Amino acid sequence: MRTKLEIRGVEILKGYLDPQAQADMVSDIREVVRAAPLFSPETRFGKKMSVAMTSAGTYGWYTDRRGYRYERKHPSGVHWPPIPERVLAVWRDLVSAERMPDCCLVNFYREGAKMGLHQDRDEADFSWPVLSISLGDAARFRIGSVERGGTTESVWLDSGDVCVMGGEARLVHHGIDKVRFGSSSLLSDGGRINLTLRVVD
Ligand code: MD6
Ligand code: FE
Hints:
13% of the residues lie in helices and 35% in strands. By secondary structure, the protein is mainly β. The chain has one domain (3-198): Jelly Rolls (Sandwich), CATH 2.60.120.590. The longest helix is centred in the first third of the chain and has 17 residues, at 19-35. The protein starts with a strand and ends with a strand. N-[(3-hydroxypyridin-2-yl)carbonyl]glycine binds next to β8, β11, β12 and β13.
């Protein structure tokens, strides 16, 4: 069942994708990963991220000691594959049919992976929301404020949930505390995929 939740201006659409739509999207992502293999980059502080990632679209998000940025090519030198049509359809339905996202970042969480509190602010234009799609194991998503520090609230994101971070909430701090590894049967070897769609420039 689809239900809607709002936490600190972040919209969470529980159960947006039904199980068949989730499985179809996983096969789309497997194709993206075949063209642009997952890698675990280093943060600008030189620490290897626990999350593995890749991207689709005109730009891919990238990080190393030179900092966080968008790149037109995968580290192997190939262009990022196109954003799958079924992924774009979610954006079209919930954000806009006029402006498509430039980047679909694919984050893959293996056992023990997490993501610290951060803001999505490497884009040139914050007037567009960031939309995320969760697939596979459940994860505890923490939401803070636009400013650093202060209190936070958390919510469990399950497979098929979609999250829209726009308007006043576009720059709130957020992160993944932990993944309940093996809680979903969508991915045969367990783990969690999160897709984030952004307008970059
Ligand atoms: C994740 N998500 O769910 C990490 N960013 O694995 C994000 O960092 C995120 O879910 C911007 C908007 C929505 C998100
Ligand atoms: Fe983020």
